[in-house]
């Protein structure tokens, strides 16, 4: 298969979808890898590194899309890439369709095959291609939140861990999944007073067992959230509905219950955000203030630490990329239920329930493309 790796062009996105090591693994299996010039530089990988691994370097994004049968990316295509994607071209990347209607319509129109990292799902319901970036984003959420609590950055002027004789900051984490767990580890390690909220009592029991003493658990509901708002200094939004739009757990009117300088970090911004006043921001201009509350809503947080993020992401995506390249997307998805669940849009048809539901579009059954085997997979 011919694989193309374009340079990411989203604001301050320095990650790349494939490392030289990953390139070598694909090339030695007989595949051709074309990498856009300087695509890996932001992550510390030079064009010469890719050439040594067997890739060919192309001068621009247009030639990279034109050459490839499968495109490997990190972030969703942005508007200037829509027309570059060809009919029947496989695009393997994060899409987050439920948060981007324009992207969804563009991918339907160009009749490509969209296989989303974020909905590849194991039998235990874990999301193996979302986990590494969720780990990074969860840990970064505390790092960034601690910074924006500083007074010069319009925060409350509180040191996250406090000092002897002074109470530490109070951190509320909404969601006890991968993001929330990693955020709690970081906040607890820095000495904060941490509360994790979730609707899953079994998950709360688990977290209560494994977390240090300065991490408490609390059932998530509107009453309990409102009860916490006037007491916390940093709030982390870490809610995920796979492939779907995140629910608004903090509404516009709740901001008035927070103290001036409270910081909100909405890691769920890629899926529409779990804070109603959330809107995507960039590393270049990461925050804005509403009702004296600081909002940090960067949509590609792991892009700020691209070396770590690129290695972590390739570790997870490469085994799936090899399957797709070796077998083609149809056979690979027929044989691997995890990959099949990553399919969101196929040749103009929306085949993922949550995406169709988000925009009131027709949901087309997978059987149309995968045959009877899809029924077996669902069972």
TrEMBL record:
Superkingdom as given in the UniProt entry: Bacteria
Keyword Disulfide bond: no
InterPro entries, per the entry: Ala_DH, Ala_DH/PNT_CS2, AlaDH/PNT_N, AlaDH/PNT_NAD(H)-bd, NAD(P)-bd_dom_sf
PROSITE patterns with a match to the protein in the record: ALADH_PNT_2 (PS00837)
Keyword list, A-Z: NAD, Nucleotide-binding, Oxidoreductase
Native species: Marivirga salinarum
Active site residues according to the UniProt entry: 96, 270
GO biological process: L-alanine catabolic process
Organism lineage string: Bacteria, Pseudomonadati, Bacteroidota, Cytophagia, Cytophagales
Residues that bind NAD(+): 134, 198, 203, 220, 239-240, 267-270, 298-301
GO (cellular component) term, any one: plasma membrane
Alanine dehydrogenase/pyridine nucleotide transhydrogenase N-terminal domain mapped to chain residues: 4-137
CDD domains cross-referenced by the UniProt entry: L-AlaDH (cd05305)
EC number: 1.4.1.1
Positions annotated to bind substrate: 15, 75
Protein name (database record): Alanine dehydrogenase
Catalytic activity: L-alanine + NAD(+) + H2O = pyruvate + NH4(+) + NADH + H(+)
The encoding gene: ald
